[in-house]
Amino acid sequence: MSSEATLQHADVHDAHHEHHHHETFISKYVFSQDHKMIAKQFLVTGIIWAIIGGLFSVIFRFQLGYPESTFPWLEDLLGHWAAGGKLKPEFYYALVTMHGTILVFFVLTAGLSGTFANFLIPLQVGARDMASPFLNMLSYWFFFLSSIIMFTSLFVQTGPASGGWTIYPPLSALGDASSGAKIGMDLWLVSMAMFIVSALLGGLNYITTILNMRTKGMSMTRLPLTIWSLFFTAVLGVLSFPVLLSGAILLLFDRNLGTSFFLSDIVIAGKILPNEGGSAILFQHLFWFLGHPEVYIILLPAMGMSSEIISVNSRKPIFGYMAMVGSVFAIAILAFLVWAHHMFITGLNPFLGSAFVLLTLLIAVPSAIKVFNWITTLWRANIRFTPAMLFAIGFVSLFISGGLTGIFLGNSALDLHLHDTYFVVAHFHIVMGVASFFGMFAGVYHWFPKMFGRYLNDTMAFIHFWITIIGAYLIFWPMHYEGLAGMPRRYYDFSGWSSFNMFSGLNEFISLIAMIVFAAQLLFVFNFFYSMFKGRKVADTNPWGSNTLEWTTPINPGHGNWPGEIPEVYRGAYDYAKDGKEFIPQNVPIGDDESKAH
Amino acid sequence: MKEFLIIALGVLIFVVIFQIAKASEYVSVLKGEKQSRKQNNKINAFLLLGFLIFGLIGVWYCNDLYYGKTLFPQGSASLEGEKIDSMLLITILITGVVFIITQILLFWFSFKYQEKDDRKAFYFPHNTKLELIWTTVPAIFLTVLVVFGLKYWFKITGDAPKNAIVVEVTGHQFAWEFRYPGSDKVLGKKDYKLTTAKNNLGVNFDDPASFDDIHVNTTMHIPIGVPVKMVINSQDVIHDVGLPHFRLKMDAVPGIPTTQWFTPSITTVDMKKKTGNPDFNFEISCDQLCGASHYAMRGVIIVETMEEYKKWLSEQKSEYFTLFPDKAPKDNSSDSIGKQITQLLPVKNN
């Protein structure tokens, strides 16, 4: 059935193809409906956001590393928010909040799955474009609108949202609670509503395309693992983002229309508020019902791309394809059933808490399967260390390190001590922040030749990799110790605390490394934009010797991807080292003497 | 000036890296791509091995540097915290072993199976036996952790023992306040709508139970060896009573009181001796972002002997008499206060 649909679609597109020869600048680069161009738009917007979000972390690390010093240039840069060269606490919290929001949503959700789902799904399943190119274009432009609103909020007089990226009410609901909870918070919520529309339009498109538009012979069990993980990512997004939307709308009501969904018994700034009967905890349930799947929305694409890249560069099939698919499936299901492990210390019923402990630690099983399968893929391989491969190996290393600390935090008894300390900061930055970034970098290095017909510079890529992995561990590993000492996260200054001020030397060290790592990312950004125009040209349609369909297109594929017919698929994506052949692309028919597929 | 120098240095390093990168690309064209790829492959394989070795040394070194600064060497200050510490130890041991084994395998395989001309990758798409092993083994270890964890969790979050001392903890931007029930062991009722500048907790002083209640700011006194049950409130946004030395924390949520109990096992004075730090104090940190001065929302807990605690308690004046000094009975020996007050005032029931 799927092949029929694909053929029909191909016909329509062949007819279309004629038009595309006289594309204007606007239809080609701005309001493009070509999934490849939309992917590049997501990627470039994501990179711009990543620079902004990263810069914010460098600025607030100045405060954490040198709480006693003043920096006159900060005042030049930020005006009254850094009067006298010292960040104000209110603005410190705004920076922390925006750093989280930007990196979680705008970079690692839109920038990561927006880019690679758009780019890879049609190319790897063998389709000319997404199911609905128009909705796909809208998805980007809603993201753009959302970005503009969020960016604007940085410049309002009372500052952007400052209640943390989790925006817990009442802090985010009451303008009297903090200056970031004034107009900045409304803009945050409106921007997030736009963002969710974008995520839903994108997600529906990805699911539809994967289910209906696979080329002839591309059964679900022949899909590359990238597609499987992008598929589950989209399912997670479509099912969980609407819940955050409802939370955001209710919060807007509480803020502006006098409702009491999340407010009760509050006295603030000397005023007794009339709100009664609401529950601040209800918001946390709504938030984390998205918030937890969200971390898998961020992580799964990185897992999928790393699986693909590790297999291609090991010149060896990914070990346990079905187990890899099964474990992603298990993770996706469990992702919906663990949200309250963020809420063990909110006064949650202990019995309910125990159920969430069990389900949370259960996630470690499919995660362990994936790790062992990646490692086994490397065993007796013939490994080429392309920059993409290095980042994929780095991803596995970081996923192990950060995943294991999840076993601490998911166990509610330990969470009593570790919750909201630097242990949590270390955990989620390693497993979801840096690891997903590594997956994203791996993806960019691997598919850049397909995107732009040029290579990135290898030397700069190697320097980028080594500084980043060493720096990431130097920054986040020692933070576990700060967390074990109970040092709370989201503190502007520790010098007033006899329990936590012994880490000031370490904080300074971490800040210094953070600046170096940030500079190394600028090297990547430079490499990216330089190579886009001046990089070494790709001469071979299949430079990595890969099996998947995107490498059967011309070096610079036009809209519609394949100039002739879409290739037919005869085998799974991982026939490497089979029957003495280095690799057998998916579109090569099964030979008569070929050993049976696994 | 200094900033300019740093920026100039940064730009210089950047330019140098860029030039080297360009040059190496030309060299690779001259040498032949295959040759230069082989060379890069070898370098990166060695670096990965080096990263493994130096990384493991770094892990050990980091532990050496910072273990002493975590709270483990000084031990937990509560009986419940000791359970959490032993749980942490088990978890660190299990995850530590897994960490070391998997990282070694990952980087060692990467180094060992680097591309060589005479090497052929081994076709090994799956093996059911192996996959079953690494599904069940982690599941067994996780079961152990879950069983231990939940055993402690239910103990710690279960009902407080009957003999527990009750202290009401209230958080607001940006301070902690404490209320003790006095000799009748019942806290006076509260209604947030009664809050005024003087009666800042909104206590209902028509409730006779409130007459002997004691209200103190910032510093909480508790005796050693007796369970303490905190009834936790917030007046404005969500706060969190963070007790790192006792290994506990609990959110303070407006409108939804929470509870947490623990049994202090060492006094502040003894802890000062144990840590060799004369300035040592058990601190209450706010662990839930609550606004601009979140980082300065500090409270102190003084754990003392029962005698010291009783003496301290008897020195405190009840909030009722502080607010309404004219109604104070002449004889305010703590036992008789409650009775006298009931005689003095008509009781309103609400």
Estimate the global geometry of chain B from the Cα principal axes. Answer: elongated
Series of secondary-structure elements of chain B, N-terminal to C-terminal: HHHHEEEEEEEEHEEHHH
Find the count of extended strands of chain A (DSSP E, 2+ residues): 2
Q: Which fold does the CATH topology of chain A refer to? A: Cytochrome C Oxidase, Chain A
Radius of gyration of chain B: 31 Å
> What is the helix fraction of residues of chain B, given as a range?
40-55%
Strand order of the largest sheet of chain A: 1-2
The biggest chain-chain interface is:
A-B, 132 and 121 residues
**Strand order across the biggest sheet of chain B?**
3-2-1-5-8
- How far do the termini of chain A sit from each other? 25 Å
Mean pLDDT of chain A: 93
In angstroms, what is the radius of gyration of chain A? 24 Å
Decide which structural class fits the backbone of chain A: mainly alpha
Q: Which whole number gives the mean pLDDT of chain B?
A: 90
Task: Characterise this structure.
The complex is a heterodimer of chains A (598) and B (350). By secondary structure, chain A is mainly alpha-helical. Chain A has one domain: Cytochrome c oxidase-like, subunit I domain (Cytochrome C Oxidase, Chain A). Helix content of chain A is 63%, strand content 1%. Chain A has a two-stranded antiparallel ribbon. The longest helix of chain A has 37 residues, at 89-125. Chain B has 350 residues and is an alpha+beta fold. Chain B is 46% helix and 16% strand. Chain B contains eight helices and ten strands. In chain B, helix 1 (2-31) packs antiparallel against helix 2, helix 2 runs antiparallel to helix 3 and helix 3 (79-112) runs antiparallel to helix 4. Mean pLDDT of chain B is 90; it is low at 331-350. Chains A and B meet through helix 5, strand 1, helix 9, helix 10 and helix 11 of A and helix 1, helix 2, helix 3, helix 4 and strand 7 of B.
